[in-house]
């Protein structure tokens, strides 16, 4: 039962910025977690680490080893990306609006409130406090909104909401050169700065220009013409102009003394430069922030009244990409401001737009739609196109082979995801109201969905179309769905008429209407061993129906409280249902006897909502299970409800085996058990008071989906703050993973190790000599793994033949899953060419025994190599069969002569 968090699917993007590492790894924040998408392998995985609230800003180091994630509560995690663990933690005093690694990876620039802080990057150091503050610049008059480093990591360009961009030099000068510590100001903007970027000369890789992009759709081009080095240009900022008529503090009012004092003050400010003859010292070099900058041009993107929401710049190609609040993005060639592309993605605001390292892929994110796109701008084709559900996921369904996961949500859509990759490959949007129930047919190629729009639809997963629609004579709202084992009968329970409708799958006709319940029918399931249908209702009953005989209710199980859901054990010999008082009842459906009862009120009790009048311990709301699911062997059951916990119970002993907390995200309501009284004011909870000017603010909190549709009076008691809950639980038919539809998305927990750490990656040089050395030292497992990593065909075959038949099982069990495909391909080649047939077949047999489950889980990726192996075996089998059949009598004679002797 060692289930661990494996992946978060159904929500590719929720807001904040997106970064691209190593040209192909797309890193985005999803709530309080980090999602990493491999654009080459088309796979996505979620890091197991969690922040205390929604992540607002992320940054990745140039080498791709480290990730910095800062959440809404200003808490920062420094993460080792290859190992997926948190190395260091730090809290900033002000909200972080921008963060960036230096090009050499040694420093971090953090815009926290009005301050620009330069920190030394911790790296792999094991210090008590690894973060070291190098410098703090307090020159900005408003929030820092954009950062960029120069290629030599000596200068930082910082844009702010005070309509200015400042050029800071990291080198700190002595008191004599104090004027050099002041930044250079780029002025003339009329709105807050969204992006500020250095431009370089491609031949010398030196800064020669800069671009600043503002929210009112303007881009300013600035040119650098060298450092004049004269004191008159620099000293003017640090000195005051002479004012002979103004008396100085502490003087006696004598005009002559005033003039002398002012002259002395001027001499004092110039004292440090006298030795240089009015020029800068040589060790100062060519200072960017004290050179001559001029505005070359000012261009308008012509998208008014829309606002510019996101931008990025690629130095090598001199390209600028911008995204607007009306869903339009543009790609421009600088410095001539030539529009290459101007296209519309959607009607919602583009919240992030970034280049990859090569500049050939553009990544766009739309937080309101949960949309993430990667676009190849030269060929005008999509590399990645993923979109999550617009609202919460209501229902789940695993395919019979556990490879697909279907989700239905309040946005009227049904999506089908590949579990191994985390990608959605088809979306059905024919429903006109919320999808409430899903069911996979036994054939694995047909999916059923029920909706509040009064229809049950059947979807073909080969042709991706709706091939059958089941309706009732009068419009009804369907909330539950079931199908028998043969797939001939479809049943759906209603919310409003308390009836169960029965249709024929082949003809689509309505066969029967089962009446008898006096409340909404929220649970339906067919017995796995016969045609008995179990239904649960809010009328405090569970009823068994014989659908094919048409006898009506066969048996009724009465309860003291409303029954919320019902499930059959996989062998059909037990029935479980949950009631409103927090109990789980286990019935024998054959004898009609109550077998066990589990009291789960204390186990499922969740946290306290912001608007609750009572404490979490005294509140009765949410202390019940709304979703149940048996394990594949029927020994334990998973239960979830309107709480932050999912409980796993052992049925035979009625004990709690494990309690999973699905999130630690304090941005959601119901996570904390005890609220802080200092956050309660006369106007209500402090977190629910909207003190921002929502018409002009462009912060991360305005980009999230939590505020959608909740601005109407009385629509939500807590002003749209999402409440943590589990709406649906499903265990995969293989029994090795399960999924939960929660407020955070679809969480997948698995017993399979999703991350494999190979020690040979660290301390062994992967060379042919190392393979030979391992073979000479009688280490066939290490030799085989090294040869697989080298991907040298002759070495792999040499290592395979070096293993004795007795050691084959041990060597096969030591092969990591990532090398299975290469090993299968080697076996295919050997079967076609080498004479050692039995030896290779023993390898294949042990491989299937040891890694059979992993091969089944990744069958889509391994399918080509498995088919090649099957083809080689089939050819060999046919050749042997033909040879044996042609020599049948000769073989009989040889066998008989051997017996006679």
Characterization of this structure:
This protein is of the alpha+beta class and 901 residues long. The chain has 12 helices and 58 strands. It has a 4-stranded antiparallel β-sheet with strand order 1-58-57-56, with no helix packed on it. A 4-stranded antiparallel β-sheet has the order 2-3-4-5, with no helix packed on it. Strand 38 (478-483) and strand 39 form a beta hairpin. Helix 6 (780-790) runs antiparallel to helix 7 (793-802), helix 9 runs antiparallel to helix 10 and helix 9 (820-833) packs parallel to helix 11.
SSE blueprint:
Layout: E1 4-9, E2 19-21, E3 25-30, E4 33-38, E5 43-46, E6 55-60, E7 66-71, E8 75-80, E9 85-91, E10 96-101, E11 107-112, E12 115-120, E13 132-137, E14 144-149, E15 155-160, E16 165-169, E17 184-186, E18 193-200, E19 207-214, E20 218-224, H1 231-238, H2 255-270, E21 293-300, E22 308-314, E23 319-324, E24 328-333, E25 338-344, E26 352-355, E27 361-366, E28 371-376, E29 381-387, E30 393-398, E31 404-409, E32 414-418, E33 423-428, E34 435-440, E35 446-451, E36 455-460, E37 465-471, E38 478-483, E39 489-494, E40 500-504, E41 510-514, E42 521-526, E43 532-537, E44 541-546, E45 553-558, E46 563-568, E47 575-579, E48 583-588, E49 593-599, H3 601-604, E50 625-630, E51 636-641, E52 645-650, E53 655-661, E54 680-681, E55 684-685, E56 726-731, E57 737-742, E58 745-750, H4 760-763, H5 768-776, H6 780-790, H7 793-802, H8 808-813, H9 820-833, H10 837-857, H11 859-886, H12 888-900
Antiparallel strand pairs: 1-58, 2-3, 3-4, 4-5, 6-7, 7-8, 8-9, 10-11, 11-12, 12-13, 14-15, 15-16, 16-17, 18-19, 19-20, 20-21, 22-23, 23-24, 24-25, 26-27, 27-28, 28-29, 30-31, 31-32, 32-33, 34-35, 35-36, 36-37, 38-39, 39-40, 40-41, 42-43, 43-44, 44-45, 46-47, 47-48, 48-49, 50-51, 51-52, 52-53, ...
Helix pairs in contact: 5-6, 6-7, 9-10, 9-11
């Amino acid at each position: 039962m060692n289930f661990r968090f494996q992946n978060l699917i159904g929500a590719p993007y929720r807001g904040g910025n997106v970064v691209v590492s190593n040209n192909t790894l797309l890193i985005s924040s999803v709530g309080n977690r980090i999602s990493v998408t491999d654009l080459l392998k088309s796979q996505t995985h979620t890091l197991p680490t969690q922040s205390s609230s929604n992540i607002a800003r992320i940054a990745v180091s140039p080498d791709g080893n480290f990730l910095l994630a800062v959440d809404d509560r200003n808490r920062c995690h420094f993460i080792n990306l290859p190992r997926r663990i948190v190395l260091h933690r730090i809290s900033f005093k002000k909200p972080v609006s921008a963060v960036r690694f230096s090009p050499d990876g040694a420093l971090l620039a953090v815009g926290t409130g009005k301050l620009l802080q330069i920190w030394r990057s911790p790296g792999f150091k094991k210090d008590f406090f690894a973060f070291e503050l190098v410098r703090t610049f307090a020159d900005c008059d408003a929030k820092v909104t954009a950062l960029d480093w120069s290629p030599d990591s000596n200068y930082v360009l910082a844009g702010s909401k005070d309509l200015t961009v400042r050029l800071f030099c990291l080198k700190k000068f002595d008191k004599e050169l104090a004027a050099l510590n002041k930044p250079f100001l780029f002025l003339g903007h009329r709105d807050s700065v969204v992006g500020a970027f250095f431009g370089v000369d491609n031949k010398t890789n030196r800064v020669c220009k800069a671009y600043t992009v503002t929210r009112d759709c303007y881009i300013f081009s600035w040119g650098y013409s060298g450092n004049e080095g004269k004191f008159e240009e620099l000293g003017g900022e640090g000195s005051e102009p002479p004012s002979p008529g103004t008396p100085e503090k502490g003087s006696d009012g004598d005009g002559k003394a005033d003039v002398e004092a002012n002259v002395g003050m001027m001499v004092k400010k110039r004292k440090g430069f006298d030795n240089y003859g009015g020029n800068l010292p040589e060790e100062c070099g060519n200072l960017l922030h004290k050179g001559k900058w001029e505005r070359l041009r000012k261009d308008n993107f012509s998208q008014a009244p829309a606002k510019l929401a996101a931008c990025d710049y690629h130095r090598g190609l001199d390209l600028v990409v911008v995204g607007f609040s009306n869903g339009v993005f543009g790609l421009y060639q600088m410095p001539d401001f030539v529009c290459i592309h101007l296209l519309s993605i959607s009607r919602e605001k583009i919240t992030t737009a970034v280049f990859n390292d090569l500049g050939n892929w553009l990544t766009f994110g739309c937080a309101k739609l949960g949309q993430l796109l990667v676009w190849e701008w030269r060929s005008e084709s999509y590399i990645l196109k993923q979109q999550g559900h617009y609202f919460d996921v209501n229902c789940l369904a695993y395919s019979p082979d556990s490879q697909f996961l279907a989700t239905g949500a309040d946005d009227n859509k049904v999506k089908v995801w590949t579990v191994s990759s985390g990608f959605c490959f088809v979306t059905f949007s024919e429903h006109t109201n919320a999808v409430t129930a899903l069911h996979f047919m036994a054939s694995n190629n047909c999916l059923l969905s029920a909706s509040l729009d009064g229809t049950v639809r059947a979807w073909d997963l080969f042709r991706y179309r709706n091939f059958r629609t089941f309706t009732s004579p009068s419009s009804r709202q369907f909330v539950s769905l079931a199908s028998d084992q043969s797939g001939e009968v479809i049943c759906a329970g209603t919310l409003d008429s308390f009836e169960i409708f029965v249709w024929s799958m082949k003809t689509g006709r309505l066969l029967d209407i089962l009446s008898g319940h006096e409340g909404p029918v929220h649970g339906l399931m067919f017995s796995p061993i016969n045609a008995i249908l179990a239904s649960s209702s809010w009328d405090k009953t569970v009823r068994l129906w014989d659908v094919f005989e048409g006898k009506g209710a066969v048996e009724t199980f009465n309860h003291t409280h409303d029954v919320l859901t019902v499930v059959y054990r996989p062998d059909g010999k037990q029935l479980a249902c949950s009631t409103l008082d927090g109990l789980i009842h286990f019935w024998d459906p054959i004898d009609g006897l109550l077998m066990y009862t589990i009291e789960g009120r204390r186990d499922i009790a969740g946290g306290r909502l912001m608007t609750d009048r009572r404490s979490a311990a005294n509140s009765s709301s949410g202390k019940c299970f709304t979703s149940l699911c048996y394990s594949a062997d029927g020994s334990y059951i998973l239960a979830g409800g309107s709480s932050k916990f999912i409980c796993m119970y052992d049925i035979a002993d009625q004990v709690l085996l494990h309690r999973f907390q699905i999130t630690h995200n304090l941005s959601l309501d119901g996570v904390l058990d005890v609220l802080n009284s200092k956050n309660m004011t006369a106007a209500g909870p402090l977190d629910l008071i909207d003190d921002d000017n929502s018409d002009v603010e462009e912060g991360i909190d305005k980009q999230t989906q939590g505020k959608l549709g909740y601005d109407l009076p009385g629509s939500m008691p807590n002003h749209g703050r999402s409440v943590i809950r589990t709406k649906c639980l499903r265990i995969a038919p293989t029994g090795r993973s399960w999924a939960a539809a929660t407020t955070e998305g679809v969480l997948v927990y698995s017993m399979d190790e999703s991350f494999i750490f190979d020690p040979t990656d660290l301390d062994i040089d992967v060379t042919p000599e190392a393979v030979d050395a391992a073979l000479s030292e009688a280490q066939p497992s290490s030799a085989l793994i090294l040869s697989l990593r080298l991907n040298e065909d002759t070495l792999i075959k040499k290592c395979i033949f070096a293993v004795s038949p007795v050691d084959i099982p041990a060597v096969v069990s030591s092969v990591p899953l990532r090398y299975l495909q290469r090993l299968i391909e080697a076996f295919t080649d050997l079967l076609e060419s080498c004479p050692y047939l039995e030896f290779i077949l023993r390898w294949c047999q042990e491989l299937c025994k040891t890694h059979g489950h992993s091969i089944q889980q990744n069958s889509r990726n391994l399918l080509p190599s498995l088919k090649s192996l099957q083809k080689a075996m089939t050819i060999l089998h046919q050749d042997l069969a033909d040879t044996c059949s042609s020599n049948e009598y000769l073989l009989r004679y040889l066998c008989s002569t051997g017996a006679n002797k």
